[in-house]
Specification:
The protein is of the alpha+beta class. 49% of the residues lie in helices and 18% in strands. It is globular, with a radius of gyration of 20 Å.
Length: 120
C-alpha cells in the first residue's frame, strides 16, 4: 500500500513539474529562415573528402573543448568548398569566438559565423 501511494505521489510530482515548464516549441520563425536558399543547413554539407575532414576536425575540437557548454557542442557545422558555416545557439560571446577559432585551426578557407548567443 505504501509503495503504491509513493509511486502515485512521485508520478504526480513529475507530471506537475512537466506542466509548469515552458513547453512552447514553436520554432516557425527559424524554420522559415532556414527555407531561404541563402541559409546553409545540414543537407548542404559537401561529400568532398576535404570538406568532410574539416567538419570532422572542427567537431572533434568543439567536443573536446571543456570550456564549452553542451549547447555550444551541438552547433551545426557545415562545410562546402572549404567554406565553413557555423549555426545554432551558444551561451556566450566567448563560446561563439572559441568555435570560430576551432574552425580557423581546422583549415577553413572562410567562416560564416551565424552562431546566436542565447538570450538570458
Amino acid at each position: 500500500m505504501k509503495l503504491t501511494l509513493l509511486t502515485l505521489l512521485s508520478t504526480a510530482a513529475i507530471a506537475g513539474s512537466a506542466w509548469s515548464q515552458d513547453t512552447n516549441a514553436d520554432n516557425t520563425g527559424k524554420n522559415t529562415r532556414d527555407r531561404d536558399d541563402e541559409s546553409q543547413t545540414a543537407t548542404d554539407q559537401s561529400n568532398d573528402p576535404a570538406d568532410i575532414k574539416i567538419t570532422a576536425d572542427i567537431r572533434k575540437m568543439v567536443v573536446n573543448d571543456g570550456s564549452l557548454s553542451m549547447m555550444a557542442k551541438n552547433v551545426k557545422i557545415i562545410t562546402t568548398d572549404g567554406v565553413v558555416t557555423l549555426r545554432g545557439p551558444v551561451e556566450t560571446q566567448k563560446e561563439k569566438a572559441a568555435i570560430e577559432s576551432h574552425a580557423k585551426h581546422a583549415g577553413a578557407k572562410k567562416i560564416t559565423n551565424e552562431l546566436e548567443i542565447k538570450k538570458s
